[in-house]
Structure formats: C-alpha cells, structure tokens
Amino acid sequence: MISTASRNGSSATAVAKCTASTTRCLMTMAVGVIVGIVVGVVVPSAPVVLSFQSPRPTSSSSLSSSSRSRSRSVHSLSSARDERMRGGDAASSSYDWIRRDFEVRTKNGNDDVTAASSSSSSSSVTTAGEVPPRGVGGMGTRAPSTVLIYDTTLRDGTQMESISVSCDDKIKITRRLSKFDIDYIEAGWPGSNPKDEEYFRRARAELDETTFSRLVAFGSTRRKGVRACDDVQIRTLVDSGAPTVCIVAKAHLWQVTDILRADPNENLDMIRDSVSYLTSQGRKVMVDLEHYFDGHAFDANYAYRCCEAALDGGASVLVMCDTNGGSMPWDVERIVAETISRFGNEDDDDNNNNDRETTTTTTTFGIHCHNDCGLAVANSLTAVRAGVGLVQGTINGIGERTGNADLCSIIPSLALHCDVRDMSCKDNLSDVTSLSRFIDETLNRAPNTAAPYVGASAFAHKGGLHVSAIERSPDSYQHIDPSRVGNRLRVLISELSGRQNILGKMRSLDLEDHHDDAVLNERALVILDRVKRLESMGYTFEGADASVELMILHSTMGYCPPFQVLDYTAQVYDTNVDSASRVMSKMERRDVDMASSLKKDPSLARATVKVRVLDGALPHDGPYLDRLEVSEGDGPVDALANALKKALSPSHPELENLQLVDYKVRILDPESATRAATRVMIEFKDVDTGRKWTTVSVDRNIISASLNALVDGFEYALRDIVAACVVDFE
Ligand SMILES: CC(=O)SCCNC(=O)CCNC(=O)[C@H](O)C(C)(C)COP(=O)(O)OP(=O)(O)OC[C@H]1O[C@@H](n2cnc3c(N)ncnc32)[C@H](O)[C@@H]1OP(=O)(O)O
Ligand SMILES: CC(C)C(=O)C(=O)O
User: Fold this and answer.
1) What InterPro entries does the record point to (predicted)?
2) Is ligand 2 within 6 A of the CB of residue 196?
C-alpha cells in the first residue's frame, strides 16, 4: 500500500575515498553535493510520488580547496582595490567591541556620561581621541536633585489590553521591582477584585519594614453622598494594610459636572474627606489628580482648588496626571511650573520635599503621563525639569490604551542624561535590561526589540557606514555605553552591510587565522558579496546569526565541517485511508486528518539521512564514517531532524541536548503559488546551557530549505569542535 523511492546523491562517490592527508578537505566538498528527496503521499488506488533534486545551497557549504586557494591569492587583486581595502586602516584598529568600548572616556579619567557632557559643554573644539560633548545637558534650575520612582506596572500596567497577571506573578513582580530599589510599588486596587484583595493580604508579608520598596494600594475618592468612613472601597484601602494609599480624584471641572455628575463643591469635599480619613488611619496619602492638564486648561482655578482640598486633607504627594495623553511637553512644563510655584515650599531648595518617609509638612509633586501622542516619557522628563520629584510609570510602558510612561526609558535618562544626583535605583542601572525582560517574560509578552535602552536592537548596528564608524569609536553612533544599562552592542549582517560589518564579526568570533589584513579584507569582501547576493534571493541574515557564523567559518582556512549530508529522503504517508474505499466527504476527510495529526502519530512521516561524519576526537584527522539512519516523525521535517540526530549522535553525543524551539516559514514570491521560493528559519536551543541560535535557508523546495537550515543548526552546535580545528590548522 505504501510506495516510496529514494535517490542517492552523486556526491557519495565524489567523496568516497579519503586518506589521512586529504581528510581535512574531504568534508569541504559540499558544494555541488546533490541530495535526493522523495516525498510520497500515498492514496490507495493512485500513489502520488513527487521527487526533487536539490543542490545544497552554497551558503553553508565549505570552502573547497579551489576557493581556499582563491582566498590565498588575494594579494594579486588589482592594486586599486587593494588601496581601497587598506584605506580602512585596519592594521591600527583593535575592533574589540566590548572591551574597547568607551576606552577613550575612561582614559580621560571621566567615567560619567553626564559629567562628560556637561563639564565640557563650553568647548566646541576637541582633540583627537576625545569624545565630544553632546551639546546640552542638565535639567535646569527647577529640577530637584532627588527623584522618587513610583511603579504602577501592577495597577495601570494591567489596564492594558491583553494583559492579565495571576496573584503569584504579581508577588514575583513585586519582589523583582523591590530588588531594583523602586521607591513605590502601586500593586493594585484592593476594592476592585478578589485577586487584588488576596494580593495585598500576601504582599504585606513580602514587603515589610526590611524591604526597600513601599507598597501602595490604589483606589478612588469616596462616592458621592457617602461618608469616607462608610465608603466600602475606602475601607478596603485601609484593610489592605498598605502603608501608602493613592487615590484618584477628578481635577477637571467638566469631568466633575458632566461625567462624575457631581456638584463641583461636593467633589472638593470628596477629595478632602477621603484624604483626611485615610491619613487619620495612619496612611501616607498620595492623590492622583486625574485630567489635571486638560482640567487646568479648562479652568485652572478649579484645578488649583482640587490641589488645595487634597492638601487640606493632609495629602503628602500631589500627582498631576495627563490622563488622556494629549498634552504637549511645553504645556506640561508651564502648568507644572505654575502649580509648583503656587503650592511649593519656596524655602525648600528643590521646591519639593522628596523624602519618601515624610507623611506631612511639605508637599511632593508627581507626574503621571499616558502615551497617546508618544510623548509620555518626554512629558515626564519635562515635568521633572519643571520641578516634580516623583515620577509614575510602568516597566516597558504598559498601561491603559497606548500605555504609560516607560520607566525603562525614564530611569536611564534621568541617571545618564540629566543632572539627577539622587535616585534610589540609580545604582542598579545595569539591571534595567534584565528587569524589562523579566517583566515581559512574566507577562508573556513579546519584547519590543526597538525599546530605547533595553531593546535587543537598542545598540544593534546594521548600516555599513555606522559599523565602519563605530569600529573607530562606539561613541560615533551610540548615545551611551550599552553596558551601563546591561545591554550590549550588536553588529548585524545584511545586504546593507559594508566590509567592516563582516570584519567585526570575524574578529568577534576570534577566527583571525591569517594576520595579513589584505587577506582578511578580501575574505570579508567575498563573504559580503555572498550575503548581498543571497539576500537578493530571499535570505535574511540579521535574524540568523548562526548561519552568518558558519558562512565565516566556512571561509576560514583549515575549517572542515564535522559532517556532511550525502543524501536524504523524506516520505509522507497517508494512513487514514478507509480500506473499504468508501468515498469520504471533504469535511469527513478533514476531520479524520485533523484527529490523527493531533494524536501526534509518529508514523505519519519517515525520513532517511546518510551522513559522512567526523568520528572521534580532535585533531580532526580522526576517521570519517558513513552512517545511514531512518526515523519517523510528526511530519517530514520532524522526521528529518530525528534521523539527522540519530545519525550524528553516536559520534557527537552532545547533540542529544539540541532542541528545536521555533520553525518559521515564509513564502517569498506568493505569485509563484506552489512553486514559490520558501524561506525557512529554525531556532535551536541547547537545553544544557540555555543558549539559542537561529539558521536560515531558502529554496523552492520547502523540505530542502528545511534540511539545510537543520544542517546549519546541527553544525553550529558542534562549532567548538570545528573552531578548534581551525586553530589547529596553522
Ligand atoms: C484613570 C484611571 O486609570 S483610574 C483607574 C481605573 N481603573 C479601573 O477602573 C480598574 C478597577 N475598576 C473596577 O474594578 C471597578 O470599576 C470599580 C470596582 C472601581 C467600580 O465598579 P462599579 O462600582 O461597578 O462602578 P463602575 O465602574 O460601573 O462606575 C464607576 C463609578 O465610580 C464613579 N467614579 C469615577 N471616578 C470617581 C472618583 N474619582 N471618585 C468617586 N467616584 C468616582 C463613577 O461616577 C461611577 O459611579 P456612578 O455610576 O455612581 O456615577
Ligand atoms: C489614576 C490616574 C493616575 C491615571 O491612571 C490617569 O489619570 O491616567
């Protein structure tokens, strides 16, 4: 009932004989290897057999002996080209990305970016080797020297679409924020739901006198017509046990009359009574003045009366909120400055009392911004410049609608670009990237790779001109040293790369097997040319570091891949055929197929893989063995991966730790329908070390593209062995 066919690759004979001296090169003959594949989908009366021949793409093929000699003969290239290559002054550049990072700054005895910029800002002339000033710095005279950070990830953050956090995760996040020395953690609204009530019960034990952060319970002013002491919601705030409570109060006259539908004076009473009752219960009270900026524009006097009511009640922090996120930075600056000059303590140097332990006397002003115009961070920093001493925000900027001000941008900006001297979490700045990723991970969100400071792309350099410049000084295209926020510089390889992208990558891999710059340059140009050509065919290398690394390894003298696929077959069986040959309806058939694929029936696909594999220890003149294995799987790619692992593991048991974690397929020219070129990207993980890497391959045959991406992934897993080969060679 099942019929299949296989076809041996012609390469088997091409590499059949090898002596010890030729062993080194044997595995490098992958170019031109023809592998055969058969995909057979069998139905009872009419077996269908599709067969393809697909050469292994040359992206990860090794440098053949002829191409090696090409690499050796680069000195003979035209002198004009040599000149161009040498123009890069490669001999004098160390290109040691991380270690040399900001060497210039430390050489000048100045390790502080802010100080560097402000201290030298009067001079516009720099001498060679000096990092020029950024031009502006500091926050002006009204900015306080101390800024308190108030995190509302667990309250406003959870008001974002698609975010929901369990009580356990809330506790986990609280611990992590406290470890970062966040001053205040607003963790929920105990009057809102049982989960938040439970959270406060449990969190009391977590955040006690010994922990740095102060826990805040959030709520609102009392309801109309109810005494504060009788208001159920206010009661839950007290019962939460949180030492600090923050209540939202309407500060916009129109919102009061038309939305809350309260008398303006009653709203003032609601604010005053609520604050006063909560302070009488021993709580430190903060008031979030909702719609403050719009309310100020509508009727500044009423907005001020709301401030007065809160102060009368004994509030210690007044937070001005840009609730709808529509305020411009200049309006924020003006309104904050006007408010602080009206209510701030003129005798206080900072116009603010930013002592987080204070419960009465002078007032701290705070800011809470939403990101509806993409200005939440700018508005928050502007408010600090105008005098506020407490900034509310969330990790990664999550929050209602388009989110809140992102503390992962605000904290580093205050620490590195402004004159804020005193901020509790400043000493933990290098932990901010890890904090950001922890929150995304816990909330099950895909990280924003372009996030300032903490995103994976925040210090990733792609354009050739940029990379060539940062080779001379990372300052040329970076506003800070990434390590200050726990991030790292990355160089991406793509069709927009220049020679320096490749050279940088080669050096970062420590594969400088040749000390002649001209040879390295030429090799970089060959690889660059190849990258550009392959990307024009649909490859994309910037997300496939492992394939890039292998391409470089394959161009390195002395490199021999640890194995080579000689041929393979992949077969797909249809075991759901009704033996009585009953004709099934389309729907019926689909149900049967779906049921069996969900059962994960491993006999649905079968693959064979024949490999020539380096067996034994280094140096690499150990024996090469041919091994043929067959495996089944949930589909042809799964079966191929299993067969490959089975064939290689006896020689390389470390491959048992290899796990496929992602498999992405993209059709590149959909107009070609089923003939379309397919890009396959596979992500692998070493379960032992947790390390991940991604490979890419493109082919019109999806099975072939998949196999090639698999081969790269397996070869990459063995790169330490092959890297040792390279060093051994010279
Ligand atoms: C700008 C902000 O982000 S504020 C925080 C917003 N966050 C949330 O709303 C999340 C948690 N919310 C909840 O769980 C619920 O909405 C609750 C428990 C607070 C209230 O639920 P309910 O009692 O069913 O009321 P509902 O949500 O339908 O309406 C809100 C009520 O609060 C009133 N209200 C709104 N703001 C205030 C305020 N500052 N002070 C007093 N009452 C207020 C509204 O007028 C309305 O009362 P009304 O219908 O009598 O006029
Ligand atoms: C409750 C306050 C702080 C709020 O979320 C807002 O006004 O946006």
Assistant:
1) 2-isopropylmalate_synth_dimer, AIPM/Hcit_synth_CS, Aldolase_TIM, Citramal_synthase, LeuA/HCS_post-cat, LeuA_allosteric_dom_sf, PYR_CT
2) no
